[in-house]
Amino acid sequence: MTRIPEQRHIGVLGLGLMGTAIVERLLEHAYIPHVWNRTRDRAEPLLARGALWSDHPLADCDRVLISLYSSAVVTEVLTPFQESIRVGQILIDTTTGAPEDSILWANRLRERGASYLDAPISGSSEQTRRGEATVLVSGDQAAFSACQDLWPILGRNVYYVGASGCAARMKLVTNLVLGLNRAALAEGLLLAEAFGFDLASTLRVLQGSAAYSRQMDTKGPKMIAKDFSPQAKLSQHLKDVRLILDAAKANGLALALADTHRQLLERAESLGLGELDNSAIIEAMRSRQA
Fold it and tell me: How far is CA 237 from CA 53, 150, 178, 279, in A?
């Protein structure tokens, strides 16, 4: 039997929408993902496709990908495993979290001779599944170079942006603009609807105009069809917007548009839309007109 090289074995902590997409990408590229999730049933479809369940991916694999809801959850999950962190190990955290927590974990791992890379992914789970996402990476540059085989699997565009915490900060910048693009699209479609325009035709006009953003391609059809099956959950983006506002405040900034966006997302969550795709923000806007 041919032995599979050790570097083809990759640990994955967290099997939400993004974590599942990452595992699917690894399987497609002949890696052996060792997966862990707080609820094992989420892993079953992936195990049927060739992933391996692991009670302790940090003990099994030299490189481990993390995809969890928040920095707080990363700390909750990693803390029981941290005694197994060893020299030369690399943890790649794709979670959108607080920059200061990325720095904290980088320092903890450095003390054990290991490396932590914060590597949040800009794009939905569906874009990740298709290999179309963007990956922002910061931390030890040698560790970044040691993972060159993984970056094209995680995204089409990969940017190394500096020391630990920088990728987490850059992700907040990209999510601010991304979320406002999505909200602006939703409001524009509502205005077109009020004018009596066909929304599919309106979307084509917008896509061909100077107002274009990629959100028109990914979220426009979902808004028009009222298809809010989740690719990225609305409540998760609200979590990110709160991180953005906290980080801005810590740096002496008041972000008026981001704060208005927060209020819209909180309204959406109050309407029970939190677990739906973030394109459901159009429904929160529509409800304000009633």
Answer: 29, 26, 10, 11
For residue 290, how far is the Cα from the chain centroid? 33
Query: For the chain, how big is the Rg over CA atoms in Å?
Result: 20
| Edge-first strand listing for the sheet containing 157-160 | 121-122, 134-137, 157-160
Within 10 angstroms of residue 221's Cβ, the number of other Cβ atoms is 14
Q: Say if residues 111 and 100 touch (Cβ distance below 8 Å).
A: no
- The pTM of the full predicted model, rounded to 2 decimals, is 0.91
CB 64 within 8 A of CB 12: yes
Cα–Cα distance measured from residue 100 to residue 81, given in angstroms and rounded to the nearest whole number: 20
Strand 134-137 relative to strand 115-118: parallel, antiparallel, unpaired? unpaired
Q: What is the pLDDT of residues 30-61, one digit of tens each?
A: 999 999 999 999 999 999 999 999 999 999 99
Least Cα distance to 54 among 17, 30, 81 occurs for 81
Q: List, in order of start, the domains of the chain with CATH numbers.
A: 6-163 (3.40.50.720), 169-287 (1.10.1040.10)
Q: How far is 63 from 83, CA to CA, in rounded Å?
A: 16
Taking alpha carbons only, the member of 157, 159, 129 closest to residue 144 is 159
